[in-house]
Structure formats: C-alpha cells, structure tokens
Amino acid sequence: MAGEMKNVPQVHPGIVATSRDCFPIDLSRRRRRAVVEACRADDLEIAEIETIVENERDVVRALEELDRAGVDALVIYLGNFGPEGPTTLLAQRFPGPVMLAAAAEESGDDLVDGRGDAYCGLLSASYNLGLRSLRPHVPEYPVGLAGEVAAMIGEFLPVARVLLGLKHLKIFSFGPRPWDFFACNAPIKPLFDLRIEIVENSELDLLDVFRSAEGLPDVAKVAADMAQELGEGNRFPDLLSKLAQYEVGLLRFMEENLGASRYAAFANKCWPAFEPNFGFVPCYINSRLAARGIPVACEADIYGALSEYLGACATLMPVTLLDINNTVPADLAAEAAAQTSGYRPTDLFMGFHCGNTPSGCLVDREMRYQLIMHRLMEPGKEPDITRGTLEGRIRPGPATLYRLQATAEGELKAYIAEGEVLDMPTRTFGGTGVLAVREMARFYRHVLIEKRFPHHTAMAFRHVGRTLFAALRVLGVADISYNRPQEMAYPTENPF
What is the pLDDT along the chain (496 residues), one digit of tens a residue? Predict the structure, then answer.
C-alpha cells in the first residue's frame, strides 16, 4: 500500500506540425511522421495530430483534434519555417505545457524543395512568444533530425509532468509556522501565482482528522500493512493501530477536500503540542505517504512540501525532506576513505531528519523514538509519546538536493545541486546519510546563506537537475542557483 505512486500526473503528449504556406506542406507532414516513428522506436507513445497549422483556422482545428485525443502536453514542431503568428497562437490557446522544436535539414542533395528553414523560423517564433508573454519549454538545442527531436520529447515529458502536477496541486497545511522555525516562512501569494491552491488549517483540525478515523475498518488493514513493511524493524507493535488511524484520517481528509484539484501535498506542524495530544510522532506516516507521491513536510514547511512534490513528479520516485544538518567528523571520513577520498572535507555533510524518509530509501530501517523530542518531553522515562520515527541510513547512490522557496518579500528563488549519498556509516540517530556535493562549502556560503534559504532541503534519489531547471524556467523562476565549479565565482564571492 505504501509504495504506489498515484498522486502524480500521467502525461499524454501530442505533436502538431506547422508549415509556412510558401513552403511545401508535405515537408512538414513527412518530417512529423518521422519524429512519431522515432518516438515509437523509443517506446514513447505520442498522439500524431493530422492537422498541419498554416493559418488561424488550422489552429482551431488542431485544438479540437488535440482535445479529442486527450492530449495534455503539446509538442509544436516546425517542419519548415512555420507561420509565427499561428504557431504562437496555438501555444497560447493550448491549456497545458508546450514545447517547441524545429526540423534540421536532412541532406545536402535536397536543399531546394527539401530545405525547410525551420532553424530560421524558430527565431521568428521566439519573438512572437515574447509578444504573447509565453514561456514554453525550449530544449537546450531545439533543432534536430527525427531521432534527435524524439530525444527532446523524451526529456520534455518529466518537465510536463511537473508542470501538470503543479497546475492541479493543492497543499494542505496544519498549524502555523513555529516560533523556532521562521526559516520555513511561507508567503502564499507566490503559490497562487503558480496556480497552486493552499488551504491552511489549525492543529485542532488535524486532531479532529485523527479522531474521525477511530474505529474505521481500514485502520486494521493499514496496521497489518505497516507490520509487513517494517518486518523485524517493528519495535513498537502496540503503536501501529494509532499510526494507522492517523494515516487513514489524513487520506480520507485528502479525498474529501481535493475539490477541483487532482493532487495533494501536506505541510503539518508536528511538535511540540502534537505528541501529548496524539500520543506519537507522525514521522513514519509521513514516510509512507511520501512513498506514494504524497509529500507530508514536517514543521509546517509549505515550500518544503511543494519542493518534494516537484521531485516526485520529475522522477516518479519517492523523495524526502532533510535538514542540511551537520559536518562530517574527520575520523569518520577517514574510516570510510574509499568513499570519501575523492572529495574535500568541506564537500561532505550529513543530511538528517527524524524519520520521514520512505522505507525503500533506507538501509537497515526500523521504527524508533525521536531522541530530541524524548529529551524534551520524556526525560528519564521510557519512550512513549515520542515513538513513531522510521530510522536508518539513507540509501547510497545519486542524489539531487533542491528547493523552491518564496522569500519574505514574496519573490521565488530556487537552487539545485547534484551529488551522491555515500555508502558509509553515520553512527548517529534519525534517518541520516553522508552526502557529497562538489564545492559544497562555496554553495553553502554563497547560495544557502547568502540567499537566505531555510535548512530544509528536498532530495531526489537520482540526478534530475536538468528536468527541474527546465521546469522552473517555464514557471518563470528567474533566480535558480546551483553549485558552481571552482573556476566560476559567485557574484558575492570574495575574489582575494
């Protein structure tokens, strides 16, 4: 039950070719068919729209055909120069994500009737896109032969999935930002600018959600599923019924309150009032929902939940939310020299959170109690209300750290840094891993600190920076930072 990624869109792409009326229309038709065949050779299904857009009437016909085919992500393909007015009108009228690409010339033996000049036409279309204030996805080099355009479409699909997910996303938050975590501040106007719905609730509402699920038949089923998932790591079997009740309550609340939206994420305040009133910590449930593409960010971190959801759409894999937490002691790094020797000490840090990382993303995971909260709430006692974390070492492999955040002034900023989780012990508590990011020290100082990002970072379990960067560009995020190589200074970096 915990591993089904059902809270993300399925993308249904379609391709429309355009043709300037002073060029052979058959050139666009033939080239479009070649792109579709190349897509199918790559196991990429795409709806081939028969209407070729030469004029405004063709735009209407193409839109009707796209609607009948159920297309929600559009590739506009300049098979020749293309008419920039109708081309960009089609991009404007289509209700979903749009990509533009153009045909390269195939042969030096066919540069009279077979020359399409789409290389030139895409320049004209770009000017008209600006007139219409449009931001479609444009590949890094958007001109190519059929197979190359098919590869561009393959890269467009996860970008489109991110954009469609955000278009239909609703974020539920419970509780105000805690006094100690103003860093997770969340101006909501930028969410509406991104067409994301936000519904803010109180912690009493969350308690009511939990209590409303008491005695429901699904609770026993979910508890049994938890026991199976935890296996030998089930240290507190008596707690599963309460945890299952909370999970059932959250999922019922989501289903009953999605309204006009299709997808959801949560940002829930999880301490200190939570534990005495609910009788557990919610970390394990957060991990289970994240495993099916429903992020539940702790500490009422609304933009953390949003960032997690971006990664779930981009990868179709579970993601997690971590603190950029602590340095790695030299002796620990030395003991794992085979893993750490290729990095500077300042490239390394530990990512940590209480226990919200999905079980499939952990090594040797088990249910434990939250040590920090235990110190605060149950000092000198056996753990009771602080039980419910899922702890273990974060699975080694490629990783992308990223976050989309609205500043206190209401401006959207983002960062992306690719690296890896090292296969080495951490010797500490929580869901933790040693992460390695090239030039992390400079990135930490001149991006995370300089641009006032909070300590929470979203982490995807693969390198997905290319997709996230492209999606953020389409969303209009102008300030996107990354870990710059040593030879490329940050604007704020001391040159001396």
Answer: 445 788 999 999 999 999 999 999 999 999 999 999 999 999 999 999 999 999 999 999 999 999 999 999 999 999 999 999 999 999 999 999 999 999 999 999 999 989 999 999 999 999 999 999 999 999 999 999 999 999 999 999 999 999 999 999 999 999 887 676 666 778 899 999 999 999 999 999 999 999 999 999 999 999 999 999 999 999 999 999 999 999 999 999 999 999 999 999 999 999 899 999 999 999 999 999 999 999 999 999 999 999 999 999 999 999 999 999 999 999 999 999 999 999 999 999 999 999 999 999 999 999 999 999 999 999 999 999 999 999 999 999 999 999 999 988 899 999 999 999 999 999 999 999 999 999 999 999 999 999 999 999 999 999 999 999 999 999 999 999 999 999 999 999 999 9
What's 77's domain CATH number? Answer: 3.40.50.10940
Residue 238 lies in a domain: yes
pTM for the model: 0.96
Query: Rounded CA gap, 428 and 283, in Å?
Result: 17
Give the residue among 330, 325, 334, 276 at the shortest CA–CA distance from 430. 325
Pair 138, 173 in one domain: no
Strand partners, 201: 174
The residue range of the domain holding 41 is 13-157
Backbone angles phi, psi at 395, to 5 degrees: -60, 130
The answer to whether 173 touches 201, Cβ cutoff 8 Å, is yes
Q: Tell me: do 328 and 454 sit in the same domain.
A: yes
